[in-house]
Specification:
The complex is a heterodimer of chains A (114) and B (112). Chain A contains no helices and 11 strands. With 114 residues, chain A is mainly β. In chain A, 37% of the residues are buried. By secondary structure, chain B is mainly β. Chain B contains no helices and 12 strands. In chain B, β7 and β8 form a beta hairpin. Chain B is globular and about 40 Å long. Chain B starts with a strand and ends with a strand. Classes of the chains: A mainly beta (114), B mainly beta (112). The interface between A and B is medium-sized, with 26 and 23 residues.
């Protein structure tokens, strides 16, 4: 079974621009979660989607948004980029039921904002 | 509020020595606990998990962890560290809605 894939792996943007990151979960996984990882803050939960609905959201400004498609693929969008948005963005997928607490992570997208 | 604390930011051990990484959590209900490992430039790989039952859980790569409810701890151990174990280790608690709370991580350096 293929793992979680994220594209692109690396991105360089300038302040004020917007960016879209993509995540393809493991086949059969319907839940997709997004995390921001920075050296100072560690891993912080952004949001989680299940069956195209956002079920939970972390404490991030409205510039951070996401969506999930019917095939469970998910995208994350950050508008009006700030320098502080530079981070590794990780996507994780899981299956329904108790096993949903086990998340499988992708390699991440490294975003650099200049 | 849910939280995870990893008191040790960085640990250095000699190859072949034993290892213990500390993790303390705060969670109102029965916790689902995890340890993940992250190599440079990579995503997170699950080492082991605790849902219920036996409080000593075995994971991959020779790691184990013990859940101690009275101490709100879930420490990770390995009897003999290999140079390839050098990485960042994260403890996490899983909550309803798949919202994971991660510790800030412990960076492990292995000296030959």
């Amino acid at each position: 079974k293929a793992g979680v894939t994220q594209t692109p792996r690396y991105l360089i943007k300038t302040r004020g621009q917007q960016v879209t990151l993509s995540c393809s979960p493991i086949s059969g996984h319907r839940s997709v979660s997004w995390y921001q990882q920075t050296p100072g803050q560690g891993l912080q939960f952004l949001f989680e989607y299940f069956s195209e609905t956002q079920r939970n959201k972390g404490n991030f400004p409205g510039r951070f948004s996401g969506r999930q498609f019917s095939n469970s693929r998910s995208e994350m969008n950050v508008s009006t980029l700030e320098l502080g948005d530079s981070a590794l963005y990780l996507c994780a997928s899981s299956t329904p039921g108790l096993a949903s607490y086990e998340q499988f992570f992708g390699p991440g997208t490294r975003l650099t904002v200049l | 509020a849910q939280s995870v604390t990893q008191p040790d930011i960085h640990i250095t051990v000699s190859e072949g020595a034993s290892l213990e990484l500390r993790c303390n959590y705060s969670y109102g209900a029965t916790p689902y606990l995890f340890w993940y490992v992250q190599s440079p430039g990579q995503g997170l790989q699950l080492l082991l998990k605790y849902f219920s039952g036996d409080t000593l859980v075995q994971g991959i790569k020779g790691f184990e962890a013990e859940f101690k409810r009275s101490q709100s701890s879930f420490n990770l151990r390995k009897p003999s560290v290999h140079w390839s174990d050098a990485a960042e280790y994260f403890c996490a608690v899983g909550a309803v809605g798949n919202q994971f709370y991660f510790g800030t991580g412990t960076s492990l350096t292995v000296i030959p």
